[in-house]
Design brief:
Blueprint: H1 2-7, E1 11-12, H2 13-31, E2 41-43, E3 46-48, H3 50-57, E4 67-72, E5 75-80, H4 91-103, H5 109-116, H6 122-129, H7 133-137, E6 143-147, H8 158-170
Antiparallel strand pairs: 1-5, 2-3, 2-6, 4-5
Helix pairs in contact: 2-4, 2-5
């Protein structure tokens, strides 16, 4: 979050949550290994790591040394509190962070919601398979406890699927 909030000053909470998801998605597509290995739930506004959402919305605990949350007239924004340190990141991780921050630099949180809702995305597949897509569109519900199956990103690549399954079992 430090890296993204440094590269995108005034980043909204929605945009941050979507970029965290996209880092996992892009990493899985690239190597079969999730960037964060978070669980993303099927919510109306797209994939959400509920534990991160709750902390950003309520009170920072794990992240209080690293970021601050500011409420502005434009909404909730995330600002870096510390400088980004790349000690715990591989060169591939840094490249992925750069690629995602460049690709989505000018994209708004609302545009990212639409991006994650496209046909054949993990969010859309999960929403349709669990029969909540229409309920979201009808505004009958806003969130679910359904977890997005990220393995659909690599279901046609046996090698990446094996890596993904081993990694997720080992690090859950």
């Amino acid at each position: 979050m430090i890296y993204l909030s440094e590269k995108m000053p005034g980043i909204s909470m929605t945009k941050m949550l979507k970029l965290l998801y996209l880092l996992d998605e892009f990493s899985i597509k690239k190597s079969g290994i999730p960037f964060f290995n978070l669980q993303y739930k099927v919510w109306k506004l797209g994939p959400v790591a509920q534990e991160i959402f709750v902390e950003l919305k309520d009170k920072l605990f794990r992240f209080e040394k690293f970021i601050t949350i500011k409420n502005t007239e434009k909404g909730t924004v995330i600002c870096p509190k510390a400088e980004f340190c790349d000690d715990e990141f591989s060169d591939n991780d840094i490249d992925l962070l750069k690629d995602v921050s460049i690709e989505f630099f000018k994209t708004t949180g609302n545009q990212l919601i639409l991006y994650t809702h496209r046909p054949n995305t993990p969010w859309r597949k999960s929403a349709e398979e669990n029969r909540v897509y229409e309920l979201f569109n009808q505004e009958s519900i806003n969130s679910t406890d359904f977890v997005i199956d990220m393995s659909c990103l690599i279901s046609d690549d046996e090698r990446k699927m094996g890596i993904y399954q081993q990694y997720t079992q080992e690090y859950q």
